[in-house]
Amino acid sequence: MPPPSPGRANDRALWAMLLALLSSFALSQAFRTTTAMMAQGLTAEFGLSAQSLGAFAGLFGLSFGVAQLLMGVGLDLYGLRRTVLIAFPFTIAGSALSALAPGYAWLMAGQLLIGMGCSPAFLACTLFIARHFPADRFAFLSGVAMGVGGLGLLFTGTPLAWLVQHGGWRTGYAALAGLSALSWLLIYLRVHEPPLPAAPVAARETWGQALRGFAELLLLPHTWGILLLGMSGYAAFLSLRGLWLAPLLMDRFHLTLVDSGNVALALSLIALFAPGLSGRLDPGTAKRRFWIANASLLMAGMFVALALLRQHTGASVALILLMGLLSGYGVLQYADVRTSYPPALTGRALSAFTMAMFLGVALMQWFTGIVATWAAQRGTDPHTAVMLAIAGWLALASMGFRWLPVSPLLVQKK
Asked: Which of these, 406, 397, 139, lies nearest to 289 by C-alpha position?
């Protein structure tokens, strides 16, 4: 048998490194969706209100989003491998702290550490793809990466529900701490980023220059529409999957925790393939924003329907699964960001977009906790109020994305 060609061997090495990086992203996906499965146990042990539970779930997104700014700069200055290896131990420490937490304040501290540690995970993967794979495959490969990362969502479906039901929520965090340690070791052993071909020698950018580069993004008019929808689309889906899914199914339809975990597992299986499918169906630069705006409006309509389907278990579950399939349009937003900025700003723009996504998750989960508490105090169904609030938020963001200025780079390509 002839030896493999250098190009093919190099491709295999790149894929091995990407998969190692994706293991940390998969764990990040798991951590951001644990609350739905642990909500009942946390509420029973610490007496948490819906508002406190929303704040707990949202803290991951808040710490993730704020740390994203520093991680984006770190990825540019120190490389993907070093940044991820330095950051991810915070995730291991935070999950171990959560497993041992004696009270709500310790839980919040653990959540803060977990969010910080996970913050470079997906950005490192997208930058790795952007740097080392063909540009015309970026949308598709980003979709594949999001799908592979969705393996973390599988764990927080039936497996985590079973683990929590039989061993308690602390066992769930202990298992995640062990898996995080294995991911860190895999990245340490396997990831050695190759140098960029024909990369020009340039003076290393300072932290001050890098931070000013982020500020310059906000001065570009087309950035605001991108960030507005970035703060809303993923936040809407993750607020359902990561916080309200199990409480909705258990309170409204009286399903067990494991039954709810089965629905979450099915939703997660769909999430494995939805981004890749959306990437494959990418209509190209000229029509991409139109597709994104319409998909987000359709998702808002689905949240309205879910709010109103109070007596139909099967229809509600089917609708939730359809929402999971539609959620794959988020990968098109990454492709839109990549084509909306010149190459010198691509890394920062992707970082700013990812930061906006998780700040949006934090705000929406916190806000929906307030909405649920407000509705319960007035004797109305909190889940109906939450779903309608998410729908309204997403609809307004979609209209803002449609009406706010478009990148001059996209206008030139029409």
From this structure: 406
Tell how far CA 325 is from the center of its chain. Answer: 15
Other Cβ atoms closer than 10 A to 40? 17
Task: Kindly report whether the global pTM for this prediction surpasses the value 0.85.
Answer: no
Measured CA to CA, the distance from residue 274 to residue 192 in angstroms comes to 30
Q: Which residue has the tokens 């520093």?
A: 70
Question: 7: exposed, middle or buried (C-beta count within 10 Å: 0-12, 13-18, 19+)?
Answer: exposed
For the record, the structure tokens of 393 come out as: 């938020």
Residue-by-residue pLDDT tens, the chain, 414 positions: 344 444 555 778 888 899 999 999 999 989 988 888 888 889 889 988 888 888 898 898 889 888 877 787 778 778 889 999 999 999 999 999 999 999 999 999 999 999 999 998 888 898 888 888 887 777 778 777 877 887 887 888 888 889 998 899 999 999 999 999 999 999 999 998 777 655 444 455 566 666 677 778 888 899 999 999 999 998 999 899 888 998 999 999 999 988 998 998 898 888 778 877 888 888 888 889 999 999 999 999 999 999 999 888 999 999 999 999 999 888 889 889 988 988 777 777 877 888 888 889 889 988 999 999 999 999 999 999 999 999 999 999 999 999 999 888 887 665
Supply the DSSP symbol for 329. Answer: G
d(CA 270, CA 268): 5
Distances (CA, A) of 143 to 131, 170, 326, 343, 410: 16, 32, 13, 20, 21
Burial class (CB in 10 A: 0-12, 13-18, 19+), 135: exposed
Which of 93, 88, 110, 90 has the alpha carbon at shortest distance from 101? 110
Enter the DSSP assignment of 407: P
Return d(Cα 340, Cα 210) in angstroms, integer: 19
Dist. CA 207–CA 118, nearest whole Å: 21
Q: What angle do CA 248, 251, 254 make, to 5 degrees?
A: 110
Place of tokens 């039954």: 259
- In degrees and rounded to multiples of 5, residue 151 shows phi and psi of -60, -30
Rg of the Cα atoms in the chain: 21
Write down the residue that tokens 């602390």 correspond to.
170
Contact of 173 with 78, CB cutoff 8 Å: no
- What's the rounded Cα separation, in Å, for the pair 271 and 325? 7
CA end-to-end span of the chain, whole Å? 49
